[in-house]
Amino acid sequence: MATQLRSNIECSDAEWQARQELAACYRIYDHLGWSESIYNHISLKVPGEDNAFLINPFGLLYCEVTASNLVKIDLDGNKLAHSDYPVNQAGFTQHAYFHRHLPWAHAISHVHTTETMAVCSLAEGLMPINFYACSFTGQVAYHEFEGVTVRAEEGERLLANLGDKRILMLRNHGPVVMARTLQQMFLTQWSLQRACEIQIATLSMGQPVVRVPDAVVQVHQRDLGQVNAGGAVGEADFAAWTRRIDRIDRSWRD
C-alpha cells in the first residue's frame, strides 16, 4: 500500500481520509457539547488494516484533536506509529474488544453526556415515549455497571450482553454506539442523544407519560428509511456538521 508523508506522519490515502473524518467527528462532538474533558473516546478502524484503529490522544481536549495527532494502535494496545500521547486504558479495553470480535464495528463511540448517563441510570432505561426513542425500541442492549472498564475480562460480558444489537447502554455509566461507518455511528449517536434529552425533559414534568404502542413503533421503524437526505446512512448529516465546524476552525484537518 503506497504511503505519503502528511503533517509529519506517513500513511496511505485511505488512512489519511479516515484520520480527517475521525478528527472532524471529535470536533463535532465538542461543538455539540458531547465531550467530557480529556475523557471518553471515539475510535475508527484503519481502512485496509484488520488489526489497527485510531483513537484520541489521552490528555487532549476534543477541540485539540487533529488528523495527525490521533493515535494509531493495534488490538493489543501497541502503538503502530509515533505519538507523544498515551491511550486511555478504559478506551482501549472497551473499544479493542469490540473491534476484535465484531467485524462490522468499524466506528465506536462512548460518551458521558448528562442525558444519556441519566437514562442509563433509570431502571427501565430508554422508554418508547418520543419520536427518537421509538427508533431504538428493541434495538438497545444493557450491561450492568462493574466500575471503570479497564479489565480485559469484562469484555466477554460486554459482548455477551450486546448480543445482536449495536447500542450497549452501560448501566449507571453511558452508551456505547457501534456502526459500519463513522457517519452512521454519528447519526445514531445524535438520534440517541435527542431521545434521551426528550425523555429526561418529559419525566421532569412529573406527569404520566404517553407510551407509543408496539404496533405504531413497528410502523415507525419500517418507514424511517424513507427519511433520507441521500447517500449512505448519516452521510448528509455528517457532511453538514463538518461544514459547520469548518466555519469555526479548520485546524482539525492538519
UniProtKB/TrEMBL annotation:
The protein's name: Ribulose-5-phosphate 4-epimerase/fuculose-1-phosphate aldolase
Annotated SMART domains: Aldolase_II (SM01007)
GO CC entries: cytoskeleton
SUPFAM superfamilies listed in its UniProt record: AraD/HMP-PK domain-like (SSF53639)
PANTHER family the record matches: ADDUCIN, PROTEIN HU-LI TAI SHAO
The species this protein was found in: Novosphingobium hassiacum
GO molecular function, one term: actin filament binding
Family: Belongs to the aldolase class II family.
Alphabetized InterPro entries for the sequence: Aldolase-II_Adducin_sf, Aldolase_II/adducin_N, Aldolase_II/adducin_N_sf
Domain (Class II aldolase/adducin N-terminal): residue spans on this chain: 20-200
